[in-house]
Amino acid sequence: MDRIRIVGGQRLTGTIPISGAKNATLPLMIAGLLTEDTLILENVPRLADVIQLQRILGNHGVDILIAGKRPGVDPKNGRTIHISAKHIVDTTAPYELVSKMRASFWVVAPLVARMGEAKVSMPGGCAIGTRPVDLLIMALTRLGADIEIEAGYVMARAPKGLRGAEIVFPKVTVGGTHTAMMAASLARGTTVIENAAREPEIADVADCLNKMGANITGAGSARIVIEGVAKLNGARHAVLPDRIETGTYAMAVAMAGGDVLLQNARPELLQSALDVLAGAGLRVTPTNEGIRVTRNGSGLAPVEVTTAPFPGFPTDLQAQLMALMTRAGGTSRITETIFENRFMHVQELARLGANIHLDGQTATIEGVARLKGAPVMATDLRASVSLVIAALAAEGETTVNRVYHLDRGFERLEEKLSACGAAIERISG
Ligand code: EPZ
Questions:
Q1: Would the pTM of this model clear 0.85, i.e. be above it?
Q2: Quick check: CB of 354 below 6 Å from ligand 1?
Q3: Ligand 1 in contact with 311 (CB < 6 A)?
Q4: In this structure, which residue's CA is closest to atom 17 in ligand 1?
Q5: Best mutation site among 19, 22, 23 for ligand 1, i.e. most ligand atoms within 8 A of its Cβ?
Q6: Contact (Cβ atoms closer than 8 angstroms) between residue 302 and residue 367
Q7: H or E stretch including 310?
Q8: What's the pLDDT tens digit per position in 389-416?
Q9: By Cβ atoms counted within 10 A, which residue in 87, 298, 322, 419 is the most buried?
């Protein structure tokens, strides 16, 4: 299994190109199931989760063409993929595939909406929380699907098609909003989603669906209205930049010190996180090319943060912020409100010398003068990159094990960091 070796203490200077967003790419690829025409997605990141989803879509009969090299296009940039779901030959998503990547459960929505049936494995447990899918099932039931759960599978049927409805989510759910929006696009009549997720990835998917001929208004707000249409067409859509990758590299610069341009990044996609980092002492300067982040010599100030749905502080940056605060000049408090078990990184950061106390969903971090390198273990996607951030400031060598977690959501991480001066390398096997 690959590991990553880091020797701390190097400042970061240069440019980091921000890739397309994983959490937009996955639902956009799934939206390809809604039409028999070809959906072309640009700026698609090279990630393990994207490859896994290609397998899942292929199992339904979807053809995926990856555009080859083009003159003048940097091969390192995002890829263009052509998704053709002309022939859906199988409406079952098996456990072996779904259990490897939870978001693949969302295929239930376009399959039942377009084909009138879907048999999709329940995603199963997850390191960061129980993560039930009851609200996704509630939304499909509201749209008229007949749902049965049997032997770990959700069987959804709507032989006469779905019909518009009012869907009120008791709590904000990104996956619930994506699936309700996709299914309602092909339902007869009007659907209103109340207490919808407002994440930028929701608006990006709605934008793409509207290019495919859907009629969605209000995406990005808490109230989304969808006028169903009989058929959706093909379209071309560029995936928005990854705000979690942006925040992660901004924190890496805050940790190591330096001056880096986060190319293609868009500040409005993660303003709450940028405000927290500015408060901690990072200089954040939006530019025409992206966001410039700088920390020269000044120390880090402690913060008080509670994670929340967008536009609040993203839970997917919580671990990275905790790593940063291990070196702050004082006491920080971070409260996690989205997932009940998202502190797996605490014990690993303690191995590097961090001083963190957990009390329920709140972590109290006492800043320390120095961290010291050690072997550590990645446990989930975001926890793994928090260990990389801590290692950038730790004295000596740190080895991060099980980096397959990282590959799920960070494209060319060690390449991007070493290009800015970090002493980081991947050790294969
Ligand atoms: C999406 O997960 C993201 N994944 C997650 O990113 C992200 O952490 C999360 O949204 C919150 O922002 C993708 O986009 C692929 P939710 P999702 O439904 O949709 C509960 C990463 O690191 N809930 O908004 O699964 C749930 O348990 C990943 O990239 C129910 O109770 O999250 C959680 O406590 C990790 N019943 C809360 O709602 C349901 O039916 C929010 O979950 C659905 C969710």
A1: yes
A2: no
A3: no
A4: 175
A5: 23
A6: yes
A7: none
A8: 999 999 999 999 999 999 999 999 999 9
A9: 322
